[in-house]
Amino acid sequence: MKKLGLSLAALVVAATGALADPVAGVWKTQEDEGAFAHVTLAPCGDKICGVISRTFRAEGEFKSDTIGKPLVWDMVAQGGGNYKDGKIWQPSKDKVYRSKMALSGDTLKVSGCIGPICKKQTWTRVD
């Protein structure tokens, strides 16, 4: 019985790793008004969410009050590296945009719109 329990536990761990979303990890944003961030993307239920994990200026890393805050949420994987129906927050303007993402290797194209106003950034994988 003990072997069966250990086997099941190993199977669950292996399946979890196999189901990990390819966009999961740490991403460097483009600079926005003199600062950029590292954003940690991970599954949150059946969607993808991201929080600000580190912040930087030209002088180096600094402790922003945005660290730990959600930057991306409700992204739905569409397959083929595409995500849609999410939201993204722009801290420098304190605005939330409807958002989508497209993953290609270690590059993530992120875009968001409020009405006719759209913005785009290209993020690069850190980890």
UniProtKB/TrEMBL annotation:
The keyword Zinc-finger does not apply. Residues 1-20 form the signal peptide. InterPro entries: DUF2147. The keyword Cytoplasm does not apply. Keywords: Signal. Pfam families: DUF2147. Residues 25-125 form the DUF2147 domain. This is DUF2147 domain-containing protein. It comes from Halocynthiibacter halioticoli.
